[in-house]
Design a protein that fits this description.
With about 325 residues, the protein is α/β, with parallel strands linked by helices. About 45% of the residues lie in helices and about 20% in strands.
Length: about 325
């Protein structure tokens, strides 16, 4: 009897979960139709409920500009390591062909989902967009919404030929609004023209001279799949030569602070090794209390010279035991 009741409870719980997800899916499609492919603020709040800070009017998490600036010094490995420790194992995607190898992209994701064209659906989407004041082709709609610090993240099902979401005209428009770049699970055209936009970068699957064709915009600010990663609107995009890490907004500050601590400890260790103060075995293993105290003193003595904001070092020292 107990096992039977347990099984019944399990079935009921699973049924409730299924109803919730079905309701979310129906709600998503209703809101998309009502707002020219925009995911509703209510659904964005539901999907990003771990974020407790400021948000944009559309509901996207608004990680602070200070955190974004500090993110530029975070390495792919550091971000990946923190996320793995937090249980997020599917946040990195490689295999890109960036416009520049040496221009990192950091910013808040504004997402767009493109699918193979279906005339009846795409016609309705365009009509609904016109009724809601949308101007131009649908691939310009997400660009119109960009704000400074955003990164345009689009999944166009990996299409290369006729999958070029932007050329140099749209690239200039994107950079003028966001001051960052794009990450596309598809292709781009006008590589030469885009390379002339100082500060702009594009991580794409490939480059091709064709024009965008037989592709339709299905949704804006909805979850998108970028290879092995599920990306939500407001995630922090960290794109460097090795690839792209997508950081959930609620973990952004933890990634930055952990990176800064690692950077300081590495710098201290290298400095002391060059001075012959400690052996490699002492630095590469768990530090003794004496080394930890020496590290704290070194932080205080060199606070104005270190590659981490002074305020962050003071906060670190405040929370240390030594």
């Amino acid at each position: 009897m107990a096992n039977k009741l347990l099984n019944q409870n399990t079935v009921i719980k699973n049924l409730k979960k299924s109803i919730i997800w079905i309701s979310l899916g129906l709600s998503l499609f209703v809101h998309l139709g009502a707002n020219a492919q925009m995911m509703s603020k209510k659904d964005i709040l539901f999907l990003t409920s771990e974020w407790k800070g400021e948000r944009f009017a559309d509901g996207r998490p608004k990680v602070s500009d200070d955190i974004l600036e500090r993110f530029k010094s975070v390495t792919i490995e550091e971000a990946w390591g923190v996320l793995r420790n937090e249980g997020y194992h599917n946040q990195f995607e490689g295999g890109w062909k960036p416009l520049h190898d040496d221009v990192p992209i950091v910013g808040r994701a504004l997402t767009a989902l493109y699918t193979p064209n279906r005339p009846d659906v795409s016609d309705n989407i365009k009509k609904e967009g016109e009724n809601n004041g949308r101007i131009g082709n649908t691939n310009s709609w997400p660009i119109d919404m960009l704000q400074e610090g955003d990164v345009y993240v689009a999944d166009a099902f990996g299409k290369i030929v006729n999958g070029t979401l932007i050329g140099d005209n749209l690239g200039n428009a994107i950079y003028s609004k966001s001051k960052t770049g794009v990450v596309f699970n598809s292709s781009s055209r006008d590589m030469e023209g885009l390379s002339e936009i100082e500060g702009f970068n594009a991580f794409v699957r490939d480059w091709h001279p064709s024009f965008l064709n037989e592709v339709m915009l299905l949704s804006i600010n909805s979850p998108v799949r970028m290879g092995a990663v599920t990306v939500l609107p407001g995630d922090i995009v960290l794109a460097k030569k090795e690839g792209v890490v997508f950081v959930p907004a609620h973990l952004a500050e933890k990634v930055v602070v952990t990176s800064e601590v690692v950077r300081l400890r590495d710098l201290f260790g290298i400095t002391r090794l060059k001075q012959g103060r400690y052996t490699p075995g002492q630095i590469d293993n768990k530090w003794s209390d004496g080394i930890e105290k020496d590290f704290s003193k070194w932080l205080k003595d060199h606070m104005d010279e270190l590659p981490v904001p002074k305020e962050q070092i003071q906060e670190l020292l405040k929370n240390r035991m030594w």
